């Protein structure tokens, strides 16, 4: 009879993600929080952010492009900056035809209002409606308040450090490097 085999222990939190980040500080005398721990926390935040946005889109019965478009429109309004269909196409990275369909959906759902541009009557200025503002506040307002409360718990130097770190991380992600070595396909048995 073969000896009893005990199931492998669950991997520790430290072991998760070793594929992505080598944890050079692991072991005795390691600092309580490492750079890898920070990157893992960023991943957890990203996963939570994606889940929150999926719930919001589902609750508002919208797709991702529609939600992102509304976010851009509301942000532009807060800056008192007019935004037109061409601007939205560029911001979203979609064609003018796709933008036209998106605007029609938002307008039909009562979330978008189009007005003639004040100085160029051939152009349009886009606005999120009061309904869109109310919906966004209803769906995301509480989460945004909790996020703000978490940020307010940080001291001013901690807030500055987080902003610098996230800005640097964003810059690191903007232009991915080419791999140092070409990745060869793995041969499979047929």
Question: Explain this structure to me?
Answer:
- There is one protein chain.
- With 190 residues, the protein is mainly α.
- Helices cover 55% and strands 5% of the residues.
- It is built from six helices and two strands; from the N terminus they run H-H-H-H-E-E-H-H.
- The protein has a two-stranded antiparallel sheet with strand order 1-2.
- Helix 1 (35-60) packs antiparallel against helix 5 and helix 3 crosses helix 4 (96-108).
- The longest helix is centred in the N-terminal third of the chain and has 26 residues, at 35-60.
- The two termini are 34 Å apart.
- 9% of the residues are buried.
- Residues 1-17 have low confidence and may be disordered.
Please sum up the structure shown.
The chain is mainly α. It is built from six helices and two strands; from the N terminus they run ααααββαα.
- Helical fraction equals 40-55%
Q: How large, in whole angstroms, is the Cα Rg?
A: 24 Å
The major sheet is characterized as: 2 strands, antiparallel
Structural class: mainly alpha
Numbering strands along the chain, what is their spatial order in the largest sheet? 1-2
Question: Mean pLDDT across all residues, rounded?
Answer: 83
Number of strands: 2
Element-level helix/strand string? HHHHEEHH
Percentage beta strand: 5-15%
How would you describe the shape?
globular
Q: Could you tell me how far the N terminus lies from the C terminus, measured between alpha carbons in angstroms? A: 34 Å
Count of discrete alpha- or pi-helical segments spanning 4 or more residues? 6
Report low-confidence residues grouped into runs of 5 or more: 1-17
């Amino acid at each position: 009879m073969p000896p009893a085999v005990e199931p492998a222990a669950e991997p520790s939190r430290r072991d998760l993600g070793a594929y992505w980040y080598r944890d050079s500080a692991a072991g005795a005398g390691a600092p309580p929080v490492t750079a890898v721990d920070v990157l893992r926390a960023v991943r957890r935040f990203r996963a939570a952010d994606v889940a929150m946005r999926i719930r919001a889109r589902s609750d508002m019965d919208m797709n991702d492009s529609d939600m992102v478009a509304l976010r851009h429109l509301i942000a532009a309004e807060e800056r008192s900056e007019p935004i037109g269909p061409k601007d939205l196409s560029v911001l979203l990275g979609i064609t003018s035809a796709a933008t036209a369909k998106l605007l029609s959906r938002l307008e039909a759902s009562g979330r978008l209002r189009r007005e003639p541009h004040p100085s160029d009557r051939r152009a349009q200025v886009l606005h999120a409606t009061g309904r869109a503002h109310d919906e966004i506040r209803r769906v995301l307002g509480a989460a945004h308040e909790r996020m703000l409360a978490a940020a307010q718990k940080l001291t001013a130097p901690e807030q500055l450090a987080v902003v610098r770190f996230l800005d640097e991380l964003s810059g690191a992600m903007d232009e991915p490097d080419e791999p140092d070595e070409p990745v060869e396909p793995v041969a499979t048995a047929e």
